[in-house]
Fold this protein.
Amino acid sequence: MLRWRSGTVTRVVRQWPGACEVDVAVEAREASDPPSVRALAYPRMVGRPEVGDRVLLNCNALSRGLGTGGYAFVVAIPDRLPDDAGDAGHAVKARYTPQQAMGRAVDEVGSAHRAAMVATRDLGGMPVVVADLHSALPAILAGIHERPEARRVAYVMLDGGALPAWFSRSLAGVSGLLAGTVTTGQSFGGDLEATNVHTGLIAARAVLGADIAVVTQGPGNLGNATAWGFSGTACGEVVNATAALGGRAIGALRISRSDPRRRHRGVSHHSLTAYGRVALATADLPVPDGIDADLAERVAEQLRPLRARHRLVGVKVDGLEEALRDLPVRLSTMGRGLDDDPAYFLGCAVAGRHAADLLRR
């Protein structure tokens, strides 16, 4: 299950909060092994690699040519182990794997925030924007912050994609637009750790003081081209959790004209399944008003069956393209940028705009 290699660090390429990217000269085991690979290390787990360090690598994702996860990963720097973490709490993430990580859950005994977590019974109507892909996060934030009022926004990260929040360069880039990040379930590395999405949402409200929460998986969506086989089904589960906690769920629709796969054109089958079949509670589904007529007609037809359970809300897109272009990160989804697939990013941005508008009422 693991493709092990060892090698020597030849260059530190770049760093961002929680991650360090390096070039590694590989000690080949097969004729097909490349002489050098790009590898990613998480310093809080393995220490910070330096030129000349011998490293052990996991090359699974790299060997498969995965787009989001196309790195080798540094598993250890065996000749220079990092210091022990000390009292890291009792929440174990990536449980019972060789690199299980420990952190202090926001609501566990000994947490500085336990009293606030225990005292908070519900979300008090807080808008919760949920989206299928991690690439939606910056676009949703653009829609929220395009309004002039200052809003505190928390990111609640699910574990359907990358487990370490540190993997996301987008998250690092938009951190100035966030009050903080809560990593839930098996994911880790946020400002706060939470047991599940329910305690993650409560932490967003009670500890980070959020006016709005945005919930997506980390980078690296898993899907197998079947009706139910994709990690984005969690969107429907978040709608249900939000309702159980007295929040207001807002489902960002995954819309595209440019996706080469028919099942994702117009409204993706991911959105139609997650909100139409998995979500048992009601959500607002903001629909971009201002996209081209043919696409708008197709979207309206696809969403018709969802009207029985959800509130479809038309939201103007004027001003949102400018807000998207002003973001501090480059927008990209499945290799497509804003100019390649504007409908996708506008569909996410109107969800953010709608959440911000709810606070004005």
